[in-house]
Amino acid sequence: DAKTTQPNSMESNEEEPVHLPCNHSTISGTDYIHWYRQLPSQGPEYVIHGLTSNVNNRMASLAIAEDRKSSTLILHRATLRDAAVYYCILRDAGNYQLIWGAGTKLIIKP
Amino acid sequence: NAGVMQNPRHLVRRRGQEARLRCSPMKGHSHVYWYRQLPEEGLKFMVYLQKENIIDESGMPKERFSAEFPKEGPSILRIQQVVRGDSAAYFCASSPSDRLPPGYGYTFGSGTRLTVV
């Protein structure tokens, strides 16, 4: 069973920032927070990960709550190509398995 | 540097036939992971293989499903006597070893979409 909770879907306008929330209230000290996205008819694509501190890369930013029970994936300026299902996944440092929930379907309106 | 390659992209089989799905890992990767995705759901882990070894098949149904990763060639996921419920997208990912940093981001193939008619 997925250890994360995400909204089923979200809508945003093109060129605007998007904040995708994820709750993981049972996170353990060794769990890393990973985000993947899946474009239509494609395989999942790694986006970003973090442990405690906020993280930035060329694709997105990850904001992690101080108690680590929630996190937010931030797309700073969404484009139509960002329309996808976004998955928030906890992965223990010693585990190779990814346990997927249903994710958040992000709809971008032109 | 090619990514994870899966073929075929689409596969249609009649009930009772066999389905063979292939996954070529990234260059230099010797570990492969297979996942299944039903419509509107997240991926579910099936099996983890190293070359010539099955490491973890805890997510794979005991009947009709098998997987292999030979010394040479791609990893194969084989489904015998397919049923309608096997219709799904099957994805594989690969890694260079079993000692991965906790932040390792897997690269997935584009998947094989199996339709059983």
Characterise this structure.
The complex is a heterodimer of chains A (110) and B (117). Chain A starts with 8 loop residues before the first strand and ends with a strand. Chain A has strands at 9-13, 18-23, 31-38, 44-50, 55-56, 61-64, 70-75, 84-92, 104-109. Chain A is built from no helices and nine strands. Chain A is mostly beta strands. In chain A, strand 5 and strand 6 form a beta hairpin. In chain A, strands 1-9-8-3-4 form a five-stranded mixed β-sheet, with no helix packed on it. A four-stranded antiparallel β-sheet of chain A has the order 2-7-6-5, with no helix packed on it. Chain A is 0% helix and 48% strand. Chain B is an all-beta fold and 117 residues long. Chain B has strands at 5-7, 10-13, 19-24, 31-37, 43-50, 53-56, 65-68, 75-79, 88-95, 107-108, 112-116. In chain B, strands 2, 4, 5, 6, 9, 10 and 11 form a seven-stranded mixed β-sheet that branches. The interface between A and B is medium-sized, with 25 and 25 residues.
